[in-house]
Amino acid sequence: MGDHEGHGVDFEKKADQKLSGWGLFGNKYEEAADLLDRAGSFFKLAKNWSRAAAVYKKIADCHLQGDNKHDAASAYVEAANCYKKFSLQDAAQALNSAVNLFQEISRLNMAARYSKDIGEIYLQEQDLENAAVYLNRAADLFDSEGQSSQANSMTQKIAEIYAQLEKYQKATELFEEIARKSINNNLLKYGVRGTLLNAGICQLCRGDVVAINNSLERYQDIDPTFSGTREYKLLADLAASTDEGDVGKFTDAVKEFDSMTRLDPWKTTLLLKAKNELKKKEEDEDDLT
Amino acid sequence: MEASSWDAVRKQARRLEAQLDDQMIAYRKLVSMKSDGSEDNIESDIERSLKQLQQVNSQMQTWVSSGGSEVLSHTLTRHMEILQDLTQEFYRLRSSLRAKQQHTSLLDLRDFDRAKFDVEEPSDSADQVLLREQAAIGRSTGQMDNVISQAQATLGSLMTQRSTFGGITTKISNVSSQLPTINHVLSSIRRKKSMDTIILSLVASVCTFLIFIYWLSK
């Protein structure tokens, strides 16, 4: 372990000497980057992640001096992988630098991939606002590269985040957009009813009964088979119970659906919010009478 | 003096880590069992400990940045790793517990007893049972049709993929046949580059030498 560390330090010193030298023949930045790369490998073997990350950032600087943006971006990615071991914030910053460089050299696919990674890091850190920003960026990049299924899955995540942030209108619009895109795809059309259920749940959380009923009609236009599904039945029952202000009926409808298909945590959270709102209304009405 | 202060901070970090380990074990047990409302206390304790550990790590960070040795840097990285692992584990357990609680809360039984209502309902006739069964079979058939059509769509996609891969295979074999040539060209370029460097350095040194001789002969 100490041996690896020692080798790493040696290579880093050699690289520093190269950088401080004249470099008459050959490119000193290129040679220094090679030496630093070997140093980074040794630091990784020694599990000294902070030192390895610092070295990879140095490599990125060397490549930028030599106007080699692709290798600089790759070095930032390596630095981010090291940072992930001990500091997710620094990892996100390093990946952001990589994404910017990949965009500059028109490697949009790579930029999209790493934007997605940044979004997932922020999700892990439970920073939903930033997660939405980077996942949005990833979705746009995937879309511009014609990778519709990847773009769809990003948009789905963004919509879920918006719903968690109580931006229900935006979330509903995104879910409906996904459904419209998916209905024409042979493989994606089977997931449409789930997406429409998500959109309907977001509408429920807004508590506008008229909007919910209008949405149900609109969803049948998007997918003509939707009215025969359990998802439609659930939404219709929930809309009716919301209209009547009947918490018991609401719970029964959810229970019936859950007995067949277990609700995931996201749906559970939103349905619970809707249920609590309904309870509050019921209590307010009781107070008035 | 400095060493003792570093040792004190590190000892504090290790104490907090041990404390957090114990708290996490208790919290993990609580998550796996039915929650009884005591989780809020443990959660706030863990959050407090994590904040303290974060502060201690920041203190260690200032030590290292003000000219600490390699060993100190390595130690700090290890402590930061531990903090991150504990934080992630806590977030995971907490979200799992929240999901469980919310699910229970959402599917809560109504306050009034349903049993008394069931008594008043007449028992189903044989016809109704058969009708219900027929409806269930109809629904199952519909579901199976859905699954079959989905499988057919998948099959179509896979067949398209197979033809694509067939095309790729031939392209790759073409490329692999050209690879030795490319490799040869690259090594030639590398040789040429090193030769250029050598020649350039020789020319430069000869010129310098000649200038030096000219300067001496003057």
Explain how this protein is built.
The complex is a heterodimer of chains A (289) and B (218). Chain A has 289 residues and is mostly helical. Chain A has 14 helices and no strands. In chain A, helix 1 (2-20) packs antiparallel against helix 2, helix 3 (49-65) packs antiparallel against helix 4 (69-83) and helix 12 (230-244) packs antiparallel against helix 13 (247-260). Chain B is an all-alpha fold and 218 residues long. Chain B has a domain at 2-107: Methane Monooxygenase Hydroxylase, Chain G, domain 1 (Up-down Bundle), CATH 1.20.58. Chain B contains five helices and no strands. Classes of the chains: A mainly alpha (289), B mainly alpha (218). Chain A binds chain B through residues 5, 9, 25-26, 46, 48-51, 85-88, 124, 126, 186-187, 190, 228, 247-248, 251, 254-255, 258, 263, 265, 268-269, 271-272, 275, and chain B through 70, 73-74, 76-77, 80-81, 83-84, 88, 91, 95, 98-99, 102-103, 105-110, 142, 146, 150, 153-154, 156-157, 197, 200-201.
Listing every helix as H and every strand as E from the N terminus to the C terminus, the arrangement of chain A reads: HHHHHHHHHHHHHH
Strand % of chain B is under 5%
The CATH topology of the domain at 2-107 in chain B is given as Methane Monooxygenase Hydroxylase, Chain G, domain 1
Structural class of chain A: mainly alpha
The fourth-level CATH homologous superfamily of the largest domain in chain A is: Tetratricopeptide repeat domain
CA distance, first residue to last residue of chain B: 67 Å
Described by the principal axes of the CA atoms, the overall outline of chain A is elongated
Instruction: Quickly name the level 1 CATH class of the domain at 2-107 in chain B.
Output: Mainly Alpha
Could you tell me which chain pair has the largest interface and how many residues each side has? A-B, 32 and 32 residues
Please tell me the CATH architecture of the largest domain in chain A by its name.
Alpha Horseshoe
Mean pLDDT of chain B: 77
Mean pLDDT of chain A: 86
Q: Which band does the percent of strand residues of chain A land in? A: under 5%
Largest sheet of chain B: none
Q: Please tell me how large the radius of gyration of chain A is.
A: 26 Å
Q: How many strands, which pairing sense, and closed or not: the largest β-sheet of chain A?
A: none
Main CATH class of the largest domain in chain A: Mainly Alpha
**pLDDT < 50 runs, ≥5 residues of chain B:** 109-121
Helix content percent band of chain A = over 70%
Multimeric organization: heterodimer
The count of β-strands of chain A is: 0
